[in-house]
Amino acid sequence: MSRNRNTASISPSQPLIDATEQASHDEGDVTTVGRNVLIQGLLRIADIRYESQFIQTGYRASSNSIKKSVRSILSIHNETVNIWSHILGCILFLVIPVYVFTTEIPPRYKVATREDIAVRTIYFIGVTICFFLSATCHTVSNHPSHVHHLSVQFDYLCILILMYSAMIPLIYYGFVCDHFLRNMYWGLVSVNAGLCALSTMHPRFRTVKAKAVPGRFFPGRFDIVGQSHQILHAPVIVAGMMHVMGCLGNFDYCHEHGPRCI
């Protein structure tokens, strides 16, 4: 593969930490921001911890230090939006349950059951874990390949946790008239979630790639803001809030009108 004049070449077998050390001697390839170093060339493509060749700049130097990775949260790089969107999402879904359980639930306590509280709590815990794990995974994405692979797997796993926890209240209110079907669907969803978790963590299923829109059409233009993965993050937060509203609506309908069982 040909490289620009100021870009150091890396063999696929060469450790990334060596490549970043080599790049650090070439002023054309790195930019120092505070205490953090952002790689600016295409050095990282040879290493599999970087999935998209369309994101060309803003990479943090490979690091074995959790402290340095956490410190980089306050810097501008191509993971900043991914990290902060889900940090804010995590904070939001720590606050929303406080509002729901202190403002929305008390007027309903006379009809609320332990199951009502439990299924909603499961969802809040699941979505909070999802956003926390996602922010953590993006924070440590500048670690060497073996750590990065694990972080990517946990990033996918947190999506599964969100989907699973969201299904619990939907199934509860959807099959309020038939406890057998409700429990059967809970069991099926749990088994499917477990199988998905196993496949997510298995190396054989690491090959699926996203289409990387809009970056694939404008390589390098959306490195910091506008990546396809960033576009995914915002709707997830909005969808989480809409799901909360839907759960409250299901609660009100079931307890206000009573289950209409045939």
UniProtKB/TrEMBL annotation:
GO terms for cellular component: membrane. It is found in: Membrane. Keywords: Membrane, Metal-binding, Transmembrane, Transmembrane helix, Zinc. It is a multi-pass membrane protein. The chain crosses the membrane at residues 81-101, 121-140, 152-172. Residues 1-14 have a biased composition (Polar residues). Zn(2+) binds at residue 138. It holds the Pfam family HlyIII. GO terms for molecular function: metal ion binding; signaling receptor activity. Residues 1-27 are annotated as: Disordered. InterPro entries: AdipoR/HlyIII-related. The keyword Transmembrane helix applies. PANTHER family: ADIPONECTIN RECEPTOR PROTEIN, ADIPOR/PROGESTIN RECEPTOR-RELATED. Belongs to the ADIPOR family. This is Hemolysin-III related-domain-containing protein. It comes from Fusarium redolens.
